[in-house]
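Database export, one record per block. Field names are fixed; values are copied verbatim from the stored entry.
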Amino acid sequence: MYVYLNGDYLPLEEARISPEDRGFLFADGAYEVFHAYEGRFFRAEGHLQRMARSLRELRIDGPDLDQLRDVAETLVRKNNLEQGNAVVYMQITRGAAPRKHAFPPNDTPPTVYAKAYPHTPPRDLQEQGISAILAPDIRWTRCDIKSVALLPNVLAHQRAKDSGAHEVIFVRDGMLTEGALTNVCAVFDGRLVTYPKSPYILAGITRGAVLELCEMLNVPVEEVPILEKNLPRADELMICNTTSEILPVTRVNDNPVGNGKPGPITRALQQAYREATRS
């Protein structure tokens, strides 16, 4: 496997990052995940723009977007991933410097790392649906930044795994915000409802695609909070992200959602999404 590190393409086992890198010491960095279908990236511009926004919010001076796009495309080619599905993970930190909380000097170069690997979306889970649990959203209030500081997500997701569930859905002030790895959408009486863009959620690229597909399919959309107390009334529930695409949630805290099966709006969105990735 070839990876990219600070201007070089090299085998993964030869990649070395300083132990004083601020990504290692402080989780001081941002990341993105791109999905390539048959060598073509889906919504690459959205991912690049979100990376640029995250870096601006963190005040990290990273490479320009054309360079990042070239890195992602080159990794797919160098790793012979132009057939089938692949994922590119890209991370940019503030660089290596003596451990101090304040930013290092402005001329400290950022650390830019990326790798590509084969990935197939979980088609079995897309068909049968998944279970989820609810958990208090105790994360910081800048979830709109795609930061590498994911410890609360890691602990919550492990809690789901320990309980036999696939995902955890966070609840803040009685409202469902998002999953540890995903955005969340519910269907009430034919309307798709999802938490609005805010510092409490990451504005997912797949979430944005789902909202556009709803317009194409004439599915009404409301970007308003899903109240936990109203969850038993939901006809459908789904989670979405770049690597899993759209997954039906058929059980929450061991209670069925709707009739306990993937619903028609979820199915229509899954089909439309697959068609979009092929166009």
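Remark 1: Residues 44-58 form the longest helix (15 residues).
Remark 2: Residues 2 and 78 are 7 Å apart (CA to CA).
End of record.
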